[in-house]
Each structure stands twice: as structure tokens, then as C-alpha cells.
Design brief:
Number of helices: 3
Number of strands: 0
Order of helices and strands: HHH
Distance between the termini: 39 Å
Structural class: mainly alpha
Radius of gyration: 14 Å
Strand content: under 5%
């Protein structure tokens, strides 16, 4: 991708400004973003969905008396 040309469908972790954009847009830490990209690829929709599932699991696990099996 050319410097300065934004892509709103691909998460590019090689460009610092893109990392800042995506961590802000997806309201996550850089480490979480990088882990999500490793897990599902660079497609922004897939990364967003993956982060959403992780957040949902964390909220459920934090509930008092929550039981889950892995």
C-alpha cells in the first residue's frame, strides 16, 4: 500500500499511522489488534468480529457465578 493511501478494509500493521487508526477505530490495544490479525488475517471486518467475540467472552467470564467450559 502506498504511504498515505488509507484502506478501510485491510488492517496494515506495517504503517504506524494505520496501527494508530485501527486501535482507535476498534477501541483496542495494539497487542490485541496484532493478536487478532494473527488469528483471523488482515481483513478489517474479520478483525472487528474477532475482537467483538473476545470482548463478549471476557464480559461473560467476569460475571459472578459464570460457568463456562473450554
Amino acid at each position: 500500500m502506498k504511504p498515505g493511501s488509507p484502506s478501510y478494509t485491510v488492517v496494515d500493521l506495517d504503517e504506524r499511522w494505520q496501527v494508530l487508526y485501527w486501535t482507535t477505530a476498534m477501541q483496542c490495544q495494539e497487542a490485541d489488534l496484532r493478536t487478532a490479525v494473527l488469528a483471523v488475517g488482515a481483513d478489517a471486518a474479520m478483525v472487528r468480529e474477532h475482537l467483538s467475540k473476545i470482548r463478549m467472552f471476557e464480559r461473560y467470564a467476569a460475571r459472578p457465578g459464570a460457568h463456562f467450559w473450554l
